[in-house]
Amino acid sequence: MDRVTIGIIGVVAALGLIGLRVQVGVALGIVAFFGIAAITSIGAAWGILAAIPSNFIAQWSLSAVPMFLLMGYIAAQAGLTKGLFESARIFVGRVPGGLASATVVASALFASASGSSVATAAAFSRIAVPEMMKANYKQSLATGSVAAAGTLGSLIPPSILLIVYGIFTDTSIGGLFVGGLLPGLLSAVAYIFMITLRCWLDPTLAPVREGNHTRAEKWAAFHDIWPLPTLILGVLGGIFIGVFSPTEAGAIGACLAAAIALLRGTFSRKMFWRALYETAEGTATIFIIAVGATMFAVFLGLSSLPNVLSGIMLAHVSSPIAIIVAIAVLYVILGMFVDSVSIMLLTIPIVQPILSGLGVDMIWFGIIVIKLLEIGMITPPVGLNVYVIRSALGSSISLAEVFKGAAWFILTDIVTLTLLILFPAITLLLPGIMK
């Protein structure tokens, strides 16, 4: 059996194991081990299995992952996110669908601190959905806005997905953070515009509007949210002006979050140990997947499958846009069945040689990838964020209702994605200025 055939069988086997709910890192590692053994020898497979985990974990840039996770967990455990939704409701509550728009604004801020879409969706399913239901919002709008707004955590820096993508593609993480800022804000604005337009055309979606708020109420709301913007500006501002690297920024952010918690009197030993435990758990999960994906990338390289596919694509397609559209279709299809991290780590070793041959900017492509993964997080039948919301709310709301509400946000995401593909300057403008 030739190497390319073994590579194709490996990709199919990996997708099959993931579809059977085998842990992603384990599935990729198993396929890689037996694939390498088939191409070379069992001894070589054991050697690679022994070497890759230690070599991978030894990368200094990986320290950004646990540090940013720790920053997010300290911010959540210490109550630095307290009052986000209430404050956003006061400032944007007067427009049609104001509570849903407030959810988007608050989720964007929370996502900047946590770097996690799942954490954002889980938090606001308990905070925002009950408030919208009390205000007689339709279930689909209430839950759909939380599901979609939660995906902003994948794009707005510091995003864990952007860090992992940068490590695997050898792309500047700082450039990815800067490049993700405008598309992330554009996504949030597009969500708010869509919510406002729908509720203006159909007032039954959100029949209750907020009244006027006094200056004192607005000042009190601002007093509740100052810690989080301070944390975000401290971390991202330091990266943007070059005071410290993205890797160092994670540690600085964690220290800054702890300092703000101490200043507010919400820091405790119990809270800190809880944040450490959740950080260790999240880091272990990400690293297991990453090690398995690294082995899988080595296997694909030995199989020559990426080079063969790259040659075929480059021989028949000369337009980068056509390649990006084809990859986008592939990601949307895979996103219906496979989780985001798995898709990215499974496909990057295959598509990167094709993109490199066309001279595609990997920062721009990285933002496109993350946007595609965002769509997958609310697309049936998997839609991870939808299941997180369903789990948090229990049987009071059906999955069908959540997916129904998310469908409008998927359409909005497709429009935003089209703009990002057609106008790369939206992504590359800020990184270009920073250079």
Radius of gyration: 22 Å
- Note the gap between the termini: 48 Å
Q: Tell me the series of helices and strands, N- to C-terminal.
A: HHHHHHHHHHHHHHHHHHHHH
How would a textbook summarize the main sheet? Answer: none
Brief overview, please?
This protein has helices at residues 3-19, 24-39, 42-57, 64-77, 84-92, 98-114, 117-134, 139-150, 160-169, 173-201, 215-225, 227-240, 246-264, 269-303, 305-316, 320-335, 340-358, 362-376, 384-393, 399-422, 425-434.
What's the SSE blueprint?
Blueprint lengths: L2 H17 L4 H16 L2 H16 L6 H14 L6 H9 L5 H17 L2 H18 L4 H12 L9 H10 L3 H29 L13 H11 L1 H14 L5 H19 L4 H35 L1 H12 L3 H16 L4 H19 L3 H15 L7 H10 L5 H24 L2 H10 L1
Helix pairs in contact: 1-2, 1-14, 2-3, 2-14, 3-14, 4-13, 4-14, 5-6, 5-11, 6-7, 6-8, 6-10, 6-12, 7-8, 7-19, 8-19, 8-20, 9-17, 9-18, 10-18, 10-20, 10-21, 12-13, 14-17, 15-17, 16-17, 16-18, 17-18, 18-20, 19-20
